[in-house]
Amino acid sequence: MGDMLMLGFAGFLGLLKIVLMALSAFGLFDAAFRREDAFRAADKQNKVFWLIILALALVVSYLFSILSILPIIGVVASIVYIVDVRPALKQVSGGSGWGRGRGGSSSDGPYGPYNGGR
């Protein structure tokens, strides 16, 4: 019974480790495709700072046990990026637009303004 409980706990920690790595990887991927000037405009450090922090969070979550302090710090940094920095960057750059802001009106199609079939 005790072995089964430990196996279940180890499986849970393994799953948690994968989730935390995915969180860090998502933040890193998102930050990599954001424009540098969006970070400055949102007043959220700079792109290099966040790339380094999120890359370290990913590496630490891979190398260390979930029960140590370093992965917890990495998770906190990833969560701060996702819930605070990312929305501010999206607001500054206009929508989700990885790499560039999207302008135009709501009647714009993928190739320019929609003219009603004329």
TrEMBL record:
The chain crosses the membrane at residues 6-29, 50-83. Residues 91-118 are annotated as: Disordered. It comes from the Bacteria. Residues 107-118 have a biased composition (Low complexity). Keywords: Membrane, Transmembrane, Transmembrane helix. The keyword Calcium does not apply. Pfam families: DUF2516 (PF10724). Residues 94-106 have a biased composition (Gly residues). The keyword Signal does not apply. InterPro entries: DUF2516 (IPR019662). This is DUF2516 domain-containing protein.
